[in-house]
Amino acid sequence: MCGIVGYIGPKEAMPLLMxxxxxxSYRGYDSAGVAILxxxxxxxxxxxxKVAVLAGEITKYTFGxxxxxxxxxxxxxxxxxDRNSHPHADCSGKIAVVHxxxxxxxxxxxxxxxxxxxxxxxxxxxxxxxxxxxxxxxGNLEEAVRQAVLRMIGAFAIxxxxxxxxxxxxxxxxxxxxxxxxxxxxxxxxSDIPVLLEHTQKFLFLDSGEMAALSVGDVRISTFxxxxxxxxxxxxxxxxGKIEKAGYEHFMLKEIEEQPRVxxxxxxxxxxxxxxxxxxxxxxxxxxxxxxxxxxxxxCGTAYHAGLIGExxxxxxxxxxxxxxxxxxxxxxxxxxxxxxxxxxxxxxxxTADTLAGIKEAxxxxxxxxxxxxxxxxxxxREADHTIYTRAGxxxxxxxxxxxxxxxxxxxxxxxxxxxxxxxxxxxxLHEIAQALHDLPVQIQSILDNHQPIRDLxxxxxxxxxxxxxxxxxxxxxxxxxxxxxxxxxxxxxREISYIHAAAYAAGELKHxxxxxxxxxxxxxxxxxxxxxxxxxxxxxxEVIARxxxxxxxxxxxxxxxxxxxxxxxxxxxNVMRIPRTISWLAPILATxxxxxxxxxxxxxxxxxxxxxxxxxxxxxxx
Length: 623
Ligand code: F6R
Prior knowledge:
With about 625 residues, the chain is an alpha/beta fold. A hairpin with a 4-residue loop joins strand 13 (about 220-225) and strand 14 (about 230).
């Protein structure tokens, strides 16, 4: 949610800042801007639209400055427009700021500043920061920023530059991501680590409530209250983190194709012989494990769907009650938890504001929190008691794909580790699970080796009426048991990538109202991987067919019955997306893959920007 970049060093700042913005644009793409300092002049260029629009604009000017800041925006306060774009300047035009987050008390601050005569050029909350710094500036930029942040309520990561301090950047963060990359003679700032991996592997991480005054050779970190903080840089050797399309047209397809590797990496060194599990950061004492009476899963969006799958797996393997909550709801409903509750918070980015707030709430009530995240050093790793990484590598496409698969694997490993302690699974079952986990990468690859039938389905579903409107605009996804969260995930992927309205239902709920919506223009995608409830699901499919809705299925390769139930669209050989057979707990992983591809190709067929869908951003750092 907004990306920020900064640079000081011997090189020209502009190309580095633009490279950073391009890599960060998945965090927001409503507008972009840069401020470069050269010869006591602050050159600010900002434009509504994607980074490419800004790139076109800057060709009209020359920039030689070696210090600068830049921003790519996901609009919160104020519409996407040139004037609401960052950087924002104070009245004197000497100070410029880029901001990620929300200043909750901006309205009272703005009123106060306006009363003092400050003139505002935008409708954003962010602009108050520049004016607040101006008010407190008495020759020391670091102190002025400190005074400003002490008056700001909300979530923010900011980078500040000033004409009067041509060799210095000031950064501050509270509940929003910001990393500092350092080399011998240069300093980089970015919202995410992968943006900087081309340039450095040495990183400094500020905690929430810390700020830093940065010049080459002088890095001074302190708390907002002014206490000095000593920090050693950490080396991030994260090969998979590099942001590159590697020959793919879209990050989304690249990330879908990476999933066999993701499963292998996420399992590596953790799944031992005979199904035993060793998780490097799982440091909960054994006597605590015996006390766990309840498990909460906390997440948003796709990660929430991973939690819903976890609910089934944990309850099946551990026989401990599990509750899954949307983090945005959990924190405001006074949930009942105590020291015997284990909370598992799932977040690809590790920066989702609602999930972070949920963790704070859980910890305040005495629960222990394990985080599952993909991003090393992200905020969640500091908030949770323990972190287990998903090792999916940087996920750049806005729609989450490979991280979702990795989240499911990590949850399975945690469930196995806990059941190892509880002795709740028989040895034979453990062996079967271990074998099934080992087989997954090859099975995923076999689905990925045959895109064409799914592409053909997407093409069929994108046909237009003679008047040029799409024939199919409402889709249903149906599943029971472990297929139900995958129905939700399939529907979410389709909605966000292709802008098709799609709803997911537990198949048994159809008859309680939703079936009223079915017509011959409502394609229904059914999932059929859970043998225990297969007959019930077949009955639900029959109910759909009786309403003349076109049906497609995700089913096992050896399921001979389904093809005769679900007739193919004219010109296509089958409406069944096939997956290899596996154990029921792992079927969601395999069943996800065809639905990711269906969403991807539907987006392509409908001319959508699949990597950067409208109105979205990768990392949601506002509530
Ligand atoms: C959907 C998607 C979002 C995220 C959600 C949580 O494709 O990517 O729904 O899953 O915003 O994000 P994280 O996992 O970063 O907390």
